[in-house]
Amino acid sequence: MALTGIQILKMLPKKNCGECGIPTCLAFAMKVAAGQAEIETCPYVSEEAKATIGEASAPPIRTISIGSGDAEFVSGGETCLFRHEKRFEHPTGIAVLMKADEGEASIDGKIERFNAMEYERVGVYMRANLVALQDTGDGAAFTALTEKVIEKLPKAAVILMSDNPENIKAAAAACGDRTPLLYGATADNLDDFAALGKELKAPVGVKGKNLDDLVDLAGKLVDAGVKDMVIDTGARTMRGCFEDNIVARRSAIKEKFKPLGFPTITFPCEMTDDLMMEAMIASVLMAKYAGIVVLSDIQGDVLFPLLLEQLNLFTDPQRPMVVQEDIYPISGPDENAPVLITCNFSLTYFIVSGEIEGSKVPSWLLIKDTEGLSVLTAWAAGKFGADLIAAFVNKSGICDKVKHRELIIPGYLATIKGELEEELADWTITIGPREAGHLPAFLKEWKPTA
Question: Which CATH number is 5-57 given?
Answer without folding.
Answer: 1.10.15.40
